[in-house]
Amino acid sequence: RFNRASLINVGFLESGNDTDYIAMHDVDLLPLNEQLDYGFPEEGPFHVASPELHPLYHYKTYVGGILLLTKQHYELCNGMSNRFWGWGREDDEFYRRIKAAGLQVRRPTGIKTGYETFQHLHDPAWRKRDQKRIAAQKQEQFKVDREGGLNNVRYRIESRTALSVAGAPCTVLNILLECDTSDTPWCTFG
C-alpha cells in the first residue's frame, strides 16, 4: 500500500547534503497563483497550501498539501511517522511533531485568490485500496507516534532514473517500503 509519510522520509534521506530545505508537495495540488512563495523557509516551516487557500481542507491545524521545511527542522521532528499506510492523517500527526519541536508554522499573506489558488485533482475513487481502513487502523492513526520517523524507516531502492524537468536535473526513485505487519497490520491486505 501507499505510505506518503515514509516516502517523504526516504526522499529526505536520499537527498543527501545537496539541499538545504525540502518541499513536501502533494502531486495532486497544482498552484495557480504565481505570487506563491517557494523560497527558503528561513523563519521556520512555511505552509504554502494554507487552510485559507486550499480548496478542500480548511482547519487551522492543517499542514498538508505543500509544506516547506529546512532540513534541520525536519530532523528536529524526526521526519514523519511511518505508521500511515493508505491515504490520509499523516500530515495531522506531523503538525503535532512540529509543535512538539517548538516550531511555529508560517503561512502566506497577501494572496487574494482564496480557494481558487490551487487546482486539486484528488478523486477518492482512484486507488481504492489506499482509501480503505483495516482493523484498528483508524483508532491507531489518531495516536501520536513518539518513536518512529526518520530513525526507523525501512526501504529498498529498486531503481534510480535521472531526468531533467524544465532544465533542472531530477532523480526519480522507485522505492519498496518494508511493511512490519506486527506493528502496522494495515500495511498490507494479505
UniProtKB/TrEMBL annotation:
Source gene? B4galt7
Which species is this record about?
Answer: Nothoprocta pentlandii
Q: What is its EC number?
A: 2.4.1.133
Family in the record: Belongs to the glycosyltransferase 7 family.
Gene3D superfamilies with a match to the protein in the record? Spore Coat Polysaccharide Biosynthesis Protein SpsA, Chain A
Q: In which pathway does it act?
A: Protein modification; protein glycosylation
Q: What is its main location?
A: Golgi
Q: Which residues form the Galactosyltransferase C-terminal domain?
A: 45-120
Specify the taxonomic lineage.
Eukaryota, Metazoa, Chordata, Craniata, Vertebrata
Reactions it catalyzes: 3-O-(beta-D-xylosyl)-L-seryl-[protein] + UDP-alpha-D-galactose = 3-O-(beta-D-galactosyl-(1->4)-beta-D-xylosyl)-L-seryl-[protein] + UDP + H(+)
Q: Which GO terms describe its biological process?
A: carbohydrate metabolic process; glycosaminoglycan biosynthetic process; proteoglycan biosynthetic process
Q: What InterPro entries does the record tag this protein with?
A: Galactosyl_T, Galactosyl_T_C, Nucleotide-diphossugar_trans
Q: Which UniProt keywords apply?
A: Glycoprotein, Glycosyltransferase, Golgi apparatus, Manganese, Membrane, Metal-binding, Signal-anchor, Transferase, Transmembrane, Transmembrane helix
Transmembrane stretches, start-end: none
Any one Gene Ontology molecular-function term assigned to this protein's record = metal ion binding
| Obligatory cofactor(s) | Mn(2+)
Q: How does it sit in the membrane?
A: Single-pass type II membrane protein
Q: What does this protein do?
A: Required for the biosynthesis of the tetrasaccharide linkage region of proteoglycans, especially for small proteoglycans in skin fibroblasts.
Name under which the protein is recorded = Beta-1,4-galactosyltransferase 7
Q: Where in the cell is it found?
A: Golgi apparatus membrane
Gene Ontology cellular-component annotations: Golgi membrane
rRNA-binding in keyword set: no
